[in-house]
Design brief:
This protein is mainly β and 467 residues long. The protein folds into three domains: 156 residues, Immunoglobulin-like, CATH 2.60.40; 145 residues, Immunoglobulin-like (Sandwich), CATH 2.60.40; 104 residues, Immunoglobulin-like (Sandwich), CATH 2.60.40. 13% of the residues lie in helices and 41% in strands. The chain is built from five helices and 35 strands. Strands 2, 3, 4, 5, 6, 8 and 9 form a seven-stranded antiparallel β-sheet that branches.
Length: 467
Amino acid sequence: MKKCISILLALLLVLSLNVTAFANGETAEATKNDSITITGAKAGETYKLYKLFDLKVDSETAPTAYSYTVNSDWANFFKAAEGETPAGPGNQYVTINEAGYVTAISNAAALAKAAAEWSGKPDAAKTVTVVEGETTAAFSELDDGYWLITSSLGTIAMTDTTPDKNAVTIAEKNPEDTVIKHVMEDSTGDYGTENDAQIGDTVEFKSIVTLYPGTRSVVVHDEMDSGLTFTAGSVAIADLAEGTDYSVNENPDDDCTFEITFADSYIAGLTAITEVTITYSAVLNENAISSGEDGVAIVEQKNTARVAFGDSQSAESQTTTTTHKFSVFKFATGETTNLAGAVFELQKAGTVMKLTKLDNNNYRVDPNGTETTFVTVADGDIVIWGVDSDGDYSLHETEAPSGYNVLTSDVNVTVNANNSTRSEIENKTGAELPHTGGIGTTLFYVIGGLMAAGAAVVLIAKKRTED
């Protein structure tokens, strides 16, 4: 009997090695076979997983009792105030009993935000960066617990994994911050994706940026082509204060023209999806026209913007600014070839415009140009580059070719947006006029009269001889 009892006690001891007694009827910790999958993830996003609470259950197959305790890495975050020692930032959102068990959470969303922003946050338990072409981020080989998920997109989520819920799926809820660019057409005052302008004109831009609560490190990058000269100090954001809500860097290290950084404090204070409107300006410059061995051409100017937030960035938004040209065909009455030597001023609303001569046939509008006139040539039209399609242009002839009369009125020019405008200008020659003190036509009349009288005398004498 004593041997039987000893054997039974030994068996009981062996069995007890595999079962740990816990409060509230708990048994062993769960095995590491849980997983969390985020769907709708964006390529390039980095998702981080933190374990806030450890979990023990009474049964691995059919749990009915759950005991949550604070993960040791987060002890300071949840600690209670003791005397003059302040409580951890997460203590106000949880109830922890004297035995150290978490019995309630008062505000899961506020708890998640506070945990994500905690400066003492430990290293993530797991990190996943979504590769190009993938749309999910998966964490595997997890044990049971209560988890915080953050991402560079601003995602903040909380979830738990348990033996009966060990494969959790969460949808990415935060869309990316976006930017939509517009440029103003000065002839109408309307904003769109395209406009045209004269070289030297100021071009007005507008970017509408959509910000989502929870995003971090939000920076707007704006890049202009070389034919647009950014107007320093022109950036403004309606209803926001520069230096407090945002800052502007007009000399960034990257290829951008300027950058706008939103203050983290401003983004953290957003409680709803927010649109902000950024306005700024630039001047269309001489690089909108190219000139070289391949000839002269119009170069469309792009202005591109994108939003960077965390480790990600939005899709780009772009506007196009262009300029135009027109040609001048000077000809003599009845001729089809170019007439050389006519000198013209190009005027806009009565003001003489400055030009830069590119070659004998091509001139470019240039506010800093040294030419105020252009001269027609015999071997082709004169082409004026860098004009606006809605400009009030006119051609004023200051000098006519030798032997031709100067035009008595200016020639109005309406520039077509398709660059097909050709101003055809006729020059008429005049009759030679007598000048004061000259013989005029009298001498010719006298000589003619004498010749007629002589003929009459000859004719009469001949007739008498015959008689």
